[in-house]
Structure formats: C-alpha cells, structure tokens
Amino acid sequence: MAKDYYAVLGLEKGAAQDAIKKAYRKLALKYHPDKNPGDKKAEDRFKEITEAYAVLSDPEKRKQYDQFGDADFHQRYSQEDIYRGFDVGDIFREFGFGTEDIFSHLFGGGGGRRSTYVRGGGGGTGQRVTRGQDYSMRLRIPFRDAAQGGERRIDYRSDGKVEHIQVRIPAGVETGQKLRVPGKGGPSATGGPAGDLFLEIEVESDPVFTREGSDLYAQVRVPYSGACLGTSVAVPTLQGNKRVKVPAGLQSGGKIRLKGFGIPAHKNRPQGDLFAVVEVEVPQTLTDKQRALLEKLKKEGL
To answer: What's the predicted TM-score (pTM) here?
Structure first.
C-alpha cells in the first residue's frame, strides 16, 4: 500500500524542514512505546511516523521520494537504506529516551540490528559496526507483583554464560506487554553496542482479584439479612482488608466502589479503583429457629 509520508506527519508536500521536525517531535512524544506500554496501535503509529521522518529529514532521500513517488522510492531504498545514518538523538534526549530505543522498536526484539560505519585510522576503509543480537524470554509473574510493581531477579544465558540481573517491574504491567532491558542482549561481534533483552510478560491469575484496565474487582459475600438491612463487610485490597458499609437493599451482583484502591498510577495512567462485587449468601441449611423466622417473613411477603 502506497504511503504519503507528508500526510503521515500531518503536513503538505513542500513543508519546511523545521515544520517536519516539529511535527515529528510532537507525534513521536505522543506515540512512543514507552509512553504507551502494551499498545500495539501506538507502537505501529510510532514506526510509521519515524519511517516518514527518516525519509523527509534527509535532503537526498526526500528529493528521491518527491521525484519518484512512494512505489519507485521503495524499489530503490530498502528499510536498512532508509534508516542508515538516521539519528534523532537530539530530539529523544529531550524526552529522556536514548537513540537506540528507537531502533530496537523499529526492528523488533527478534534480532534486528542497527548498522553504522566507523572510519579506520589514517583514512582507511570503513568498517560496518552492528548491534549485538536481541534476546527475548517469557517472564511469568504473580498477579499482585504485576499490579503493584517492584524488582525481580532474572537469570538467563548470554554468550555461553548465565547472567543475573535485577529488573524493575512497572506497576500495572499486563500479559503480552514487553519490557526492554537495554544492553543485556548478545555482544556485538564488530565492537558495536550490545543487543537488548526483551521480557514478554505473562501475569498469573489471582484467586481474589480480577482486572479490567486500571480497576480491580473482588467478590464479597454478604448474609441475606445484611443485604436486606445493611451491614459492613471486610473487602480484600492490595494493601490488606478494608471494612466498608453495605447499604440496605443492595442486590446480588451490586458493586461497592473503593476509590483509589485499584492499580497504582504509572506515567500517564491514573490510579484505578477497586470494586467489591456483592454476592448475597443463601444458606443451604437452616436451624429450626431460622426456619420459623423465615416462615413468618414469608407470610409478610418477604
């Protein structure tokens, strides 16, 4: 499918270089994968705008693109050609991201490498320098560790030996999300930077909590009389049990909101809430006294 690199950046053909850089800077900050963890659409959009900027920010590549159009341009330029010599370190240093962050996302965690050329001393021929191999591994973590975040020790094999590293788990990480550990992949055979380690998260289920976005849900059982008359109940939270009031007449399946007791806030994600989902208990066996009382209630229409 043909691409319009100008439209990708929200620009008209013939836009000034300053306008191209400003447009990319704004969009890259919005869609950078570190700003949108686990969001595949944002990551794809980031790749798209970065490819457009790699072409339009280079005078020669832009000239070729303008002259030949998208289809012919891509017959002349491979993806490696497009990104060769591309450097947006000045932009990403403002965001707190390194230049290498971009290329690991562009080429994926499956062994992509970024190539540069380094001149030999005394004007000798250039030597191609490549990044080391990226590694990936699955990391299974308990639900509560994923919800609250923390540190975890990772043992993995790199270049024939076992490595031990401490990895920071961000609060609220989800199954399928990938965590990037810079420089912990394979070494470069040509003196370039090491590859990265990508950890694909798998969050274990929890016997108490389920999760929807930043919110948590936990079931609580309320006796029939308490549901009718109102009562209080201990609700499990990530910080321990919290006693809350159950209003009279709350039906089975009704929810009680505990504001701020869900997934902790992280970067652009706000603090979540916890919802206690009420399950009204119906006793399976009754004492004679309980049965007699219920018979009286039945006669009263309850």
So the answer is: 0.54
Cα 118 to Cα 90, 127, 195, 198, distances in angstroms: 20, 5, 18, 27
Residue 173 CB partners (closer than 8 Å, separation 6+):
37, 38, 141, 146, 149, 179, 201, 203
Q: Which of 297, 217, 207, 227 is nearest to 257 (CA)?
A: 217
Q: What pLDDT does residue 89 have?
A: 57
Q: Is residue 105's pLDDT more than 50?
A: no
Residue 118's pLDDT band, with cuts at 50, 70 and 90, is: very low
Predicted pLDDT of residue 240:
93
Q: What is the distance between the alpha carbons of residues 242 and 238, in angstroms, rounded to a whole number?
A: 10
- For residue 171, how many other CB atoms are within 10 A of its CB? 18
Calpha distance 224→209 (Å, rounded): 23
Q: In this predicted model, which residue has the larger pLDDT, 46 or 273?
A: 273
Mean pLDDT of 198-221: 94
Q: What domains, with CATH codes, occur in the chain?
A: 5-107 (1.10.287.110), 130-203 (2.60.260.20), 209-299 (2.60.260.20)
User: How many Å apart are CA 227 and CA 231, to the nearest integer?
Assistant: 7
Among the listed residues 130, 138, 139, the one whose alpha carbon sits nearest the alpha carbon of residue 195: 130
Which amino acid appears at position 279 of this protein?
E
Proportion of the chain above pLDDT 70, given as a percent: 83
The pLDDT of residue 117 is 40
Q: How far apart are CA 77 and CA 69, in angstroms?
A: 12
CB atoms within 10 A of CB 261: 22
Q: By CB neighbour count within 10 A (0-12 exposed, 13-18 middle, 19+ buried), where does 70 fall?
A: middle
Q: Which residues contact 191 (CB under 8 A, 6 or more apart)?
A: 118, 129
